[in-house]
Structures are given as C-alpha cells and as structure tokens.
Write a structure and sequence with these properties.
Rossmann fold, binds 4-nitrophenyl phosphate, 146 residues, 7% strand, 7 helices
Amino acid sequence: MICLGNICRSPLAEGLMRSKLNFTKFTVDSAGTSGGHKGEAPDKRSIAVARKYGLDISQQRSRKLLQEDFDKFDYLYVMDGSNYNDVTSMARNEEERNKVIKILDEAFPGENLDVPDPYYGGSQGFENVYRMLDRATDVIAKKLDS
Ligand code: 4NP
C-alpha cells in the first residue's frame, strides 16, 4: 500500500487490508514515495479514524518505498495518479510495471479515481479516505483470498 508520505492514506490501507486477509498466507505492508516522514507514526487523524472502526494502526512507522519492494510483493497498490507515476517510474520492466495498480480501480473499474490526500484538510477527509479504502480492500480481499 503506497502513498506519498506513508502517514495518512497508506497506513489506513495497510490496517484495513491486514484485517481482511489471512496472515498466514499474505504479507501486507505500506510505504511512501517521498520518505519525508520516515520513522514517524501515522498521522493522529488516521489513527483516530482507524480506532473509531476498531483498527489499531498506531504501531506502524513510515518508510520509503524501495526498489526491492518490487521483488518482495506481487501487487503495489497506489492511492493516486501522482503515486502511480512515481512508482511505475521505478519499475525495471513490464512485469514490475504491471504490479502497480491504482487501488480504487479495484472497486470502481474504469473510473480512474484517486484517494485524495487528506493531509491539509479536516477530519472529514480522513473519514472519506477510510470509507473509500474499506470498499477497495473488500474487493481486493475477495479477489486474492478466494
Ligand atoms: P499521505 O499524506 O501521502 O497520505 O501520507 C501526506 C502526508 C504528508 C505530506 C503530504 C501528504 N506532506 O507534504 O508532508
């Protein structure tokens, strides 16, 4: 699960995805393209909305996306078009490029939707992000774990 800072959107996506997949069969992680918040806990507004729906994401720590993540993971889900451009530009071949998927394409195919960056807005933006990611991770979990 990948966003820019790995403190707002992708920690929520990681928490949701982890809660819906069998941990003995899947490895779920998140990262940011920028690395600007490396080592930080998720934004307190992300922690709060997750907690409201029964998920504890407070122990996650931000890290920067690495080249080796293309080797480790089958799917690299990104939040928006800017993440998509940044991550596909790190891909070394077509197979790696094909691992990169805009996460809302799973729930809303063909609509090319972004999970909006909630960083500069209020708590409603985090609620909105949570709901979008809940829908998307439901679809992904059914697809992968069936
Ligand atoms: P995220 O949100 O990419 O969802 O973690 C952001 C967090 C921090 C910044 C931008 C977006 N920032 O500019 O510091």
